[in-house]
Amino acid sequence: MAIASLLSARRMLDAAPPGDGRPVMLLPGLVNSDRSMASMRRYLNRLGYRAVGWGLGRNLGARAIGAEGDRLIAQVAKLYTQAGERVTLVGVSLGGIMARFVAHRRPDLVREVITVASPYAGDPRATRVWRQFQWLTGEQIDSEGVVARRQEIARPLPVPATAIWSRSDGLVNGLICRSPDEPGLRCIEIRSGHLGVQVRPQVLRAVADVLGTPPERSGA
User: Fold this and answer.
1) CA 24 to CA 88: how far, in whole Å?
2) Which has the closest alpha carbon to 24: 71, 97, 82?
């Protein structure tokens, strides 16, 4: 149904602001790979951005990116070097949480962060997948290292940030997918379930509109 809705929404999607060629890296959600972000990648490239996947296979948390995110940071640094400018990170669910992590650790590499249905601002138990997260990633949500990382990720970012979220998410509490008290954070509410959120026309257009905001207003 989501793919069919993309076809019917083509006119709305094509009316988005044109891209400027900037590098954009797309980070998939838990267990997903770059294939899950193919529709968004094609759409952003059609608009004129340089959108790429993260290139780290399935998102299995620290198993995919390294305990300190070193593999993911290396991928962002590689794109930064290739493009000659800072990279915009767009992450879905766990991918958005990771995007915020990279932006905190290496703000010199990151232009902007856009999270989609990413429950970074609250207790992981406010999701229906925290047990699956522990099993798939091998990390315990109450371990000292994970708690410290969660606290770091939830802090205000040093780069412009947008949180796209939904009250009707179903798998995670939409209210912890944004932090209203974060200075400069732009919060965009949508109506969508969690599964397949990255191919919803409303989400694609919201991402395109954020990317199309002039730099001096981004994150305002």
Assistant:
1) 5
2) 82
Q: Is residue 155 part of a domain?
A: yes
Q: With respect to residue 218, please indicate whether it lies within any of the assigned structural domains.
A: no
Does residue 2 contact residue 199 with C-beta atoms inside 8 Å? yes
pLDDT digits (tens, 9 = 90+) for 67-108: 789 999 999 999 999 999 999 999 999 999 999 999 999 999
Write the CB contacts of 189 (distance below 8 Å, at least 6 apart in sequence). 165, 166, 167, 174
Per-residue pLDDT tens digits for 191-215? 999 999 999 999 999 999 999 986 5
Q: Which residue has the tokens 């949180």?
A: 163
Q: Which domain holds residue 203?
A: 2-211
- Strands across the sheet containing 50-53: 50-53, 23-27, 87-92, 110-116, 161-166, 186-190
Is 24 inside any structural domain?
Answer: yes
Both tokens assigned to 30: 């838990």
Rounded to the nearest 10°, the torsion over CA 132, 124, 159, 19 is 50
Look at the chain and report how many structural domains it folds into.
Answer: 1
Do 88 and 157 form a contact (C-beta atoms < 8 A)?
A: no
Sign for the CA dihedral angle at 1, 208, 47, 44 comes to negative
Q: Does residue 216 fall inside a structural domain? A: no
- Taking phi first (over 0 means left), then psi (-120 to 50 degrees means alpha), and beta for anything else, what does residue 178 get? beta
CATH number where 113 lies = 3.40.50.1820
**pTM for the model:** 0.91
